[in-house]
């Protein structure tokens, strides 16, 4: 008899949605049918500030197949109050209302929606809509507005402001033996998920909608639609089974959702609206940041002062905030720290969380500065970091629930061959190339959010687990199946996960790397409830081998409930259900942050990124033959999908280091490279060998599953590691990201 | 003014379709909107991302840049046509095994591009795979896994060929 305890948690299980995705059967937001479906195409403003004086729509209306053109003059009415437009993750301010008035706040702002019977007719007609503007002065340049930066008066929920200064950072800096001061700039980036933003709004009759939507939170979009259009929540169902990438861009409801729903309600027909790639450059983005960092160390290379001030862009209508500088006060031990963060208003759309918002830029600048100071002090940068290891979160004075960062340093260094690194920059040549090694530390918070789940076991031995989570490529479908299978001792194939639907149990948006810990723990709790019920019934059965057992003394494995000490003695799950005349067993579960524990403890993932770079001596082309990312993230549910998360973060980090930037023509306030040919995201040829290491880390406090989350950590530190390696290779310190070859040969 | 329509025939995944199309309709839009074969993806509509890659008479092309009237009589294979019966194409199976995708949106294009690459006879090194697949962007960053998947199938294909010789 099969008694081996099969653990599904920790297995590199192939994605359960894999077959659907490789056969083209997985349907994304723009791929759902509806009878009589109309197509909407948005017309965007061509100026960055001012008023729409007039809109010429006659030519567009004469295109055969055009049904309606909506402008600010004839749009459907939305809610009056600001708060009705606030979604779950909205920053403080006045949420953007498409077609609300004639005012233009940023280039690319939608000014009309053309709705037609075919996509071609809508697209053609949209190109014929022209607008006359009263143009006002605009500014899209952070450097110009930097001096006007202000501390956001209202804090964004969930984003801690910089901590109060500690010690005497200025004095310590003045007195220090070794010190550096440098300015860093990280240009604006765009998420550019491969899928175009799309909504298919199916009109189901009066005030009832089924919406296929590109979103990281079906319930966030559902709440937004209900609130903005005054519909009953139960009459709005949002489905996002498959999401073609998002990286934060689909946390908040985007324009196409408003337009598809508005047109659908006005025309009483089903409507699909898809943004163009160009239009996606005028929705949320990672704002440009400027960093002024000064740091000092004593003779032994111990940090004596850290001062990090950052200024980030936001829009004219919302105070978008990230935690950018806080990391600099907690990554290393230092008694004298001063951190500050300000915003500057530009004529752009409100920025939007993008993979590791805050940390991706703040840690990049800071970890470059650490490298500079280590070099100034004449200490190996890895050794420097080890000497300044933080055993506490010194911002908050709290303990880490776990921090296996030393193992990351050790294993990462071994795999890259850190001992090869020359202390002297620019000293290693190989043919036509200069070779360098660099490294950086990464950090991201391990959140546990409120989430709910339900589970249902049927007598055929099949389990269904459901929660309104999303899978944006993260592997949520797969890990929830594994968690269910592990809990009840079933094959993964016998577990049906259900996510991506607002009608399922409550879930936060999929972001912040919290889904595995939060929704996973809720599913685990729902399965635990089923186990309790099964145990109760199993004990009561005639001649039950479990009569004398307590719950702690039984195990669930191979489809049975059995004695832990003697697994041959047990009952099959269907047997228990049949004997007890049960058609199904349901369980529900919740996860929530542990507020009491949080008074004393904080939880973070940590990483160490090691990079080799090769730089062409004459033309400055940078190649990255190898990157090692060693991660301490608690328990790994699925090493295969987990590794992919880190690979993705590292690739985006390489993009930040070498390629990605929005180039704005500030005279026009418009982005010049608003396409995938000129906004370069890393391609196959840019990516060579990436090695991912998950170091052993046990953490029973962080979440019931011991999971910390992986979506962000791969990008944090990667760009700094590359920049530091470029310094090692060339002796050139480029403080302006991305590090394009012109900056190297300049 | 009514739209002028042109009668054409397309054989898609072995099935013949006689359709009337406007001269400005792209192959991608016809596949997705008219034939409801949404496996081919629209990621940019400008020939810059490769998500729309399909095989036309065995060659990989960006279907968003092809006006469908210019493909009258063509035999087209989309991602929906790669598997035979219920059996996945070896590259589809390798993509699952190597986790060569995350969100799955670029995957149909990567697969069609990769299937064409297997037959082009141009790959001698892993660098060749990277270079020759660079028309297919993957924002999730699955590149190394995609290269692993293609390399695995190529190795098997080459081993099979050598055994046959």
UniProtKB/TrEMBL annotation, chain A:
Compositional bias annotation for Basic and acidic residues: 144-157
A family per Pfam: Ald_Xan_dh_C
InterPro entries: Ald_Oxase/Xan_DH_a/b (IPR000674), Ald_Oxase/Xan_DH_a/b_sf (IPR036856), Ald_Oxase/xanthine_DH-like (IPR016208), AldOxase/xan_DH_MoCoBD1 (IPR008274), AldOxase/xan_DH_MoCoBD2 (IPR046867), AldOxase/xan_DH_Mopterin-bd_sf (IPR037165)
UniProt GO molecular function: iron ion binding; oxidoreductase activity
Region (Disordered): 144-172
Aldehyde oxidase/xanthine dehydrogenase a/b hammerhead domain location: 23-137
Superkingdom assignment: Bacteria
Entries under PANTHER family matching the protein: DEHYDROGENASE (PTHR11908:SF153), XANTHINE DEHYDROGENASE (PTHR11908)
Protein name: Xanthine dehydrogenase family protein molybdopterin-binding subunit
Protein source organism: Bradyrhizobium cytisi
From TrEMBL, chain B:
InterPro entries per record: 2Fe-2S-bd, 2Fe-2S-bd_dom_sf, 2Fe-2S_ferredoxin-like_sf, 2Fe-2S_ferredoxin-type, 2Fe2S_fd_BS, Aldehyde_Oxdr_Iron-Sulfur, Beta-grasp_dom_sf
Domain 2Fe-2S ferredoxin-type residue range list: 6-82
A Pfam family reported for this protein in Swiss-Prot or TrEMBL: Fer2_2
PROSITE patterns: 2FE2S_FER_1, 2FE2S_FER_2
Keyword tags: 2Fe-2S, Iron, Iron-sulfur, Metal-binding, Oxidoreductase
Any GO molecular function: metal ion binding
PANTHER family associated with the record: OXIDOREDUCTASE WITH IRON-SULFUR SUBUNIT (PTHR45331:SF2), OXIDOREDUCTASE, IRON-SULPHUR BINDING SUBUNIT-RELATED-RELATED (PTHR45331)
Protein name (record): (2Fe-2S)-binding protein
Organism: Bradyrhizobium cytisi
